[in-house]
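Example record

One chain of 263 residues, shown exactly as stored in the release files.
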Amino acid sequence: MSYPLYQVDAFTDRPFHGNPAAVCLLDAPVDPEWMQQVAAEMNLSETAFLAPKEDGYGLRWFTPTAEVALCGHATLASAHVLWETQRLAPDAEARFWTRSGLLTAVRRAEGIELDFPVRPQVPAEAPPHLLEAMGVQNGYVGRNEYDYLIALDSEQAVRQIEPDFGRLRALSIRGVIVTARSETPEYDFVSRFFAPGVGVNEDPATGSAHCCLGPFWQERLGKDTFTAYQASPRGATIKVRVRGDRVILGGQAVTVSRGELCC
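Predicted structure tokens for this chain:
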């Protein structure tokens, strides 16, 4: 058995920027253990597996070490592949059935828009050693069902963070979002995302984190629409619009390789 396999850089319009995701097109659902092995082989922050359903596609996401419940960049990459390979008409909505419910994507002139659930944070006490592992002394701490969020007082502080990944890995959390207001006019806020507990030391571009960051900055900046920058070494621009209990995430994608999984 063989399956079409694509590698797509998401939340960027240039190859080798944004966040790379593998997209594997299946004929039908397969064994999750096999999907996990494929994701480990791909060794990207996420590998997406698509299986056709009557009203869209079943979609699951795996890091090299774990399945995750919500992933933005690999969903954007999946939609991009479906349109690029003409499995979907250019004006058709992409519909994905996932562990986080129905997610949809549409094509716009400026890129792809994803319709995702809000994942708001609430103030929280930092677990023991979290701030020390992140190398920060203070900052606002919140959390949602997936991650902790740390808000710092400057973009420079976000960019300079050098976490202790070994200590972070020992904490029982998926990941840590670090954010601050942008100091450049073209962006509203910046962020970085670290998730060594699920096999991703630093994620280059994290759609699911912006399901938390959108409502967080909505409260603080008094508006609903943002241009965000994820300040990872690869860099990524993410458009964010908060709409009630949904977040619209916008971005572009570029295919960098096409192949076949022969196993």
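Notes: The chain has six helices and 18 strands.
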